[in-house]
Amino acid sequence: MRYNLRTGRLGFKVGKLMFFKKSVKVQKTFLIAPKLTVRRFGMKKIGNIIEKCKILFNKKSQLTRIKPVADAVKIFNLVKHVALYTTALAVMCFIVYGSFMSLNLTVAKNVLIDGKSVGAVTDIEQFKTYYSQLHEELKDNLGDSKIRKVSYLPCITFNDSVDDQYTLKQNIMSLYDGVINAYSVYADGEFVCAALEKTDLEGALETIRTSYGNVDTATFVQNIEIKNELVTNNSIRFGKNINKELLSNKKAEGVYVATKKQSMWEIASMFGMSIDKLETMNPGLLSSVDEGTQINVIKSVPVLSVQTSAHVEGEFDIACASEVVYDKTMAKGKQKVTVAGENGKQFVKKDVVFINGEEVTETIHEKTVIKEPVAKVTVVGTKLSGVGTGSFIRPTYGSLSSRYGTRWNRQHQGIDIAASTGTDIVAADDGVVEFSGWEGGYGNLVKLSHGNGYTTYYGHCSKLLVKKGQVVEKGQVIAKVGSTGRSTGPHLHFEVRLNNVPQNPLQFISSN
Ligand SMILES: [Zn+2]
User: Fold this and answer.
1) pTM, 2 dp
2) What is the 402 CA–ligand 1 centroid distance (Å)?
3) Do residues 285 and 295 make contact, with C-beta atoms less than 8 angstroms apart?
4) How far apart are the CA of 416 and the centre of ligand 1, in A?
5) Distance from the CA of 476 to the center of ligand 1, in angstroms?
6) 3-state secondary structure of 395
7) What 3 state SS string does 295-307 have?
């Protein structure tokens, strides 16, 4: 007898219909089975269902087939069954999903290293990267270069049973030679050092915490934690070396505020950084910065810092102020202190907070002035002497277009500096305006007398900014470049005369 699961048809040879003898009328060539009740086996999920079948005999193949008759009852049963089955499945899914959510279940991979489980992870790629780094680190520290076989087994686990990096690291380390069970100090979650005895670490920490003398409170700025864990044996410290590690510095990102106009080179060398690194950390900053600019740097900072606070009572100085008074009857460059100034005194009650012994903030509770400070007064002279120093600065910016000496068979009594019209011309030294006006071939001319035998000439100006008799200061703008008088283009004709004898100006001014 054959039962076809796919078509749901039952087939058997005629001779084997014995079982149904009583209810089936057998004919040699044709089998008529108007309606027959058979028990249909084989479909486990549906179970044993009584159903009505038609029996047909195929003469050619000599096979008798029983074909189930789909009647109303059967269809109803089938629909009911499917509906129940679907509902049950939906409910199941809902329950399972609900369990996943409420119990925080997750699909993970159990990591096996050389067949030993080290923990569950959810991201294999991430784990692979981490393990290869850790293996390198352990290899360097322990000299253990043995390659270990890593395999993964799928598992369903609680979310909070997925192992964090710390647990994984500890479990992995236990498989390496040269690790030891010890105590480690962590500052804000960062490993500092390890020791065999917990009391050694606690003692060293206490020595550091209480090293700031008689204070009201003393606490570590960092969150300090001592963990009992596996460490590589080269990270163990003994005796004074524990204190040394706890008092060491580490490199950390910080901010530096420029105290004056500073170049980036200067700042880089202050912090022992490369200029490239400094530029990367401060995109867009120019090669020099102004006072007060905040710059990201790598600073050396203590691994541990102790914050102390103390109540302070006593007399403190009040710094005296400094005043400047300008006096136009006193020669420029001279100054004198007229009031020496004196610090004041006050009685103060305050609470002061220190970090590593340096005051960071203070809260003043009481302040009584015992003696007011007296400001220091300095009088600064502003009167120009009109007497030159004997050294000259270049009177304008431009290129030297003609030197002092013979030119076209004529003596050129000064130098020509080519510059565009309107460029500032400054006094080459302190002096008094001897002439300011038009003078023949010079065009608009300024003559300065320096009171020391020297006079200077500024010719071909487009504009004159000083008047005869005016006292001028070295570097003061006195006129503008032009092309007045006998001139073929805008330039400054500059002469230096000693006792009215023309000199080569380049002997007096640098060639800048
Ligand atoms: Zn000239």
Assistant:
1) 0.51
2) 7
3) yes
4) 5
5) 22
6) coil
7) EEEEEEEECCCEE
Give the distance (Å) from ligand 1 centre to CA of residue 486. Answer: 9
Report angle CA 178, 181, 184 to the nearest 5 degrees: 110
- The CA 381 to ligand 1 mean position distance, Å, reads 37
Spatial neighbors of 357 by CB under 8 A, at least 6 apart, are: 212, 308
Tokens of 330: 């006193």
Q: How many angstroms is it from 322 CA to the middle of ligand 1?
A: 50
Structure-token pair, residue 168: 């994984």
Tokens coding 219: 């606490």
CB 111 within 8 A of CB 167: no
- Give 440-473 pLDDT, tens digit per residue: 999 999 999 999 999 999 999 999 999 999 999 9
User: Distance from the CA of 493 to the center of ligand 1, in angstroms?
Assistant: 4
Per residue in 318-355, pLDDT (tens digit) is 999 999 999 988 888 889 999 999 999 999 999 999 99
Dist. CA 385 → ligand 1 center (Å) = 29
Q: How far is the CA of 412 from the centre of ligand 1 (A)?
A: 6
Residue 92 has pLDDT above 70, yes or no: yes
User: 483: helix, coil or strand?
Assistant: coil
- What is the distance in A from the centroid of ligand 1 to the CA of 464? 18
Residue 491, strand partner residues: 418, 482
Q: From ligand 1's centre to the CA of 461, what distance in Å?
A: 12
Q: For residue 494, how far is its CA from the centre of ligand 1 (angstroms)?
A: 7
Centre of ligand 1 from the C-alpha of residue 255, in Å: 55
Structural tokens at position 88: 């049950």
pLDDT(17) > 50:
no
Kind of pairing, strands 105-113 and 150-158?
antiparallel
Please report the DSSP string for 159-170 in residue order: GGGSPPHHHHHH
The dihedral formed by the CA atoms of 224, 229, 232 and 237, expressed in degrees to the nearest 10 = 50
Structural domains in the chain plus CATH codes: 2-69 (no CATH), 107-177 (no CATH), 184-248 (no CATH), 252-301 (3.10.350.10), 306-383 (2.20.230.10), 399-507 (2.70.70.10)
Q: How far is CA 364 from CA 314, 333, 352, 367, in A?
A: 12, 43, 8, 7
10 Å Cβ neighbour count for 181? 10
Angle between helix 165-173 and 124-142 (nearest 10): 50
Torsion of CA 486, 491, 492, 493, to 10 degrees: -40
